[in-house]
Amino acid sequence: MKVFGFAVLAIAPVIVFASREFGYASHRIDDADIQIGETLYGEYCAACHGKNLEGQPNWQIPLDDGTMPAPPHDASGHTWHHGNDQLFRYTLLGGEMALAEQGISNFKSGMPGFAEELSEQEIWNILAFIRSTWPERIQDIQASRSRPHN
Ligand code: HEC
Predict the structure, then answer these.
(1) Residues 3-16: what's their mean pLDDT?
(2) CA 11–ligand 1 middle distance (angstroms)
């Protein structure tokens, strides 16, 4: 039970991250290149998030250093709980900076930022590839989280 309590604490910032929306560039995912995204995913993301988007083993249990393992990006994970802009910011800035941007400081994240390595278009391509692997029903739910609120 102690382990469970710790896990809940560790994911709390991620839940807050889920409750915020940006909604200014989401549409860019619709013009992105899924095939290029798949190649880039293999080069830049698969090492942690898995070749088949399956994530790291026991991804819901915090590691000894307090960070979380890389979650799956397939429909079994929670990537689709977030709107496109949030996924974009998280990939561009990395976990710590993306959450700091939303007022959550001192969250230790194992997710690096890719602003130096990838262009914005390349990040949209990767996100479009990830989205293309989800069942249609999940894509529909995720689309409703990507719309601006007003
Ligand atoms: C060095 C390992 C590593 C690499 C490489 C990596 N990630 Fe991550 N990623 C993580 C970890 C660990 C998390 C867990 C969340 C946290 O601790 O911030 C994460 C979380 C995420 C999230 C948030 C998902 C969610 O459901 O909350 C997104 C989006 C993401 N990564 C996208 C990517 C993309 C796209 C790439 C490739 C360009 C990538 N990551 C490469 C380790 C990595």
Answers:
(1) 51
(2) 14
